[in-house]
Amino acid sequence: MNQEEIMQEKHKELTKAAAFVLVCLMFGLGVQPGSLQSGVCENALKECLNDWYNQAWGYIGTVYCAMGYAFCKKYVDPLV
Amino acid sequence: MKEDIEMKIGKMASISLGVAMALLFPLSIRAGEKPLKVKIQEVLSIGALDEETLFQWTGVASDIEGFIYVLDGLDYSLKKFDAKGRLVKKAGGKGQGPGEFMAPRLLGCSENFLYATDQGILGISVFGKDLRFQKRIPFSLPISDLFVFSDERIAVAVIGFQDPGRIVVLDAEGKVQSELVYQKKMAGPLMDSVSATLDGQGDLYLAYVFQDKVERWDKSGTLVWSKDLLGVKKVKTEKLSGYTLPTETCLKDICLDHRGHIFVLGGSRAKNPSRDVYVLSPAGGLVTTLTLPDTTHCIYIDHQDFLYVRANDGITLKKYRLIYE
Fold first, then answer.
1. CB distance B38 to B279 below 8 Å
2. Which of A34, B50, B95, B307 is deepest in the core (most CB within 10 A)?
């Protein structure tokens, strides 16, 4: 691996980590490493909708999760 | 007889020539559009992988003096940069208090104020150009896009989940001035999510995030035209926790330049996902397609026709000059 490839790899890792943190922040979730695979927005939405706090908010909680999902599809989707 | 044959040959030749011309003529010219090429030239780059200037910016706006304002999601901040890209001031912090952010998203700018939305906080936070928090405009629905006409008029797109999507125009106190329901019938949860922008005459332009559709509405609320850009009939959906939701994006953002061209950012269904920008004429004809060097979630054009986009997955903000040929 040359220097450029190492930098590219570092960049990839950094952006993946950052994107994962962003998804977690968006949906109000705790960080669970290793789940930034394909379908990250779908997985985050499922967890958001199943979260007791969001469930307690009823429709507002659902809309909150849906907003997070829509933003994730716009922001994170090209990264994964 | 010989003359007849010559005439027939002549006619056939003219018809063939006509057909060939029609086939070879560019689509844009046939549609009555001026042929145009749009190129970009980088003029400024803010934030880099080895810097801590930007972490994951979400919203951008600029003012008439050339200052650039950026919302950063990872450090819960609003940042002000000068025209050379130097950080002038930073405000915000994590929380739900005045001037704080939980998940900053959209940013708009009027003559005197900045308007920021947050996914975790309802309403619109208003800041002065010095980034001092002024007030929060109350609004009880989640906002999917924001457009600022003036200090007194702010338009917001309300996300559609179980109700049809709509554009609401608010005054500085959050009172509803007017409302446009652009989708009479619900197409499904999130299906009518849009990015929106307005022109100087008050006409509204919508790009559907989960449908291949761009629309122009006049200020009286009449649909002027509706176009598809990607040839996508239906996006993929998935059943998630009991809701059937779209899993592909068609069009991610929309903005206008000062010549009246409409710039639309293609989503995951575009040929170059999150990089292709379709340039349309005011009449909705496709004029040209511009491919950005890096993926972006949004496009923003300032009052001098500079284009701002994301690079390095949100660590960098790029400012480009638009060159029309």
1. yes
2. B307
Both tokens of B37, joined, read 């090429």
Strands (E), B164-261: 166-170, 176-181, 194-198, 204-208, 214-217, 223-227, 237-240, 243-246, 251-256
| Side-chain-facing half-sphere of B160: CA atoms under 13 Å | 27
Inter-chain residue contact B313 with A18, CB threshold 8 Å: yes
Q: How confident is the model at residue B206 (pLDDT cuts 50, 70, 90)?
A: very high
Q: Which two tokens stand for residue B287?
A: 């004029």
The CA radius of gyration of chain B, in Å to the nearest whole number, is: 22
Q: Produce one character per residue of A23-57: b if its CB has 16 or more CB atoms within 10 Å, e if not.
A: bbbbbbbeeeeeebeeebbbbbbbbbbebeebeee
Closest-CA distance of chain A to residue B311, Å: 11
| pTM given for the model | 0.84
From the list B238, B247, B297, the residue facing A74 with the nearest CB is: B297
pLDDT: is A29 or B225 the higher one? B225
State how far the Cα of B180 lies from the Cα of B158, in Å rounded to an integer. Answer: 10
Calculate mean pLDDT across residues B229-240: 90
Distance CA B191, CA B214 (A): 13
Burial label, B187 (beta-carbon count in 10 A; 0-12, 13-18, 19+):
middle
Report the residue of chain B nearest A75, measured CA to CA.
B297
Is A59 a residue whose pLDDT tops 90?
A: no
> Do the chains contact at A78 and B274, CB–CB below 8 Å?
yes
Q: Is B109 helix (H, G, I), strand (E, B) or coil?
A: strand
The CATH fold assigned to B34-324 is Neuraminidase (2.120.10)
3-state secondary structure (DSSP) of residue A35? coil
Rounded mean pLDDT, B177-185: 87
d(CA A20, CA A27): 11
3-state secondary structure of B117: strand
Number of A–B residue contacts, CB under 8 Å: 98
User: Domain spans of chain B?
Assistant: 1-32, 34-324
Chain B residue with Cα closest to A39: B247
Higher pLDDT, A66 or B26: A66
Residue B274 region, left (φ>0) first, then alpha (ψ -120 to 50), else beta? left
What's the pLDDT score for residue B185? Answer: 77
Cβ of A15 within 8 Å of Cβ of B161? The answer is no
B166: amino acid identity, one letter: R
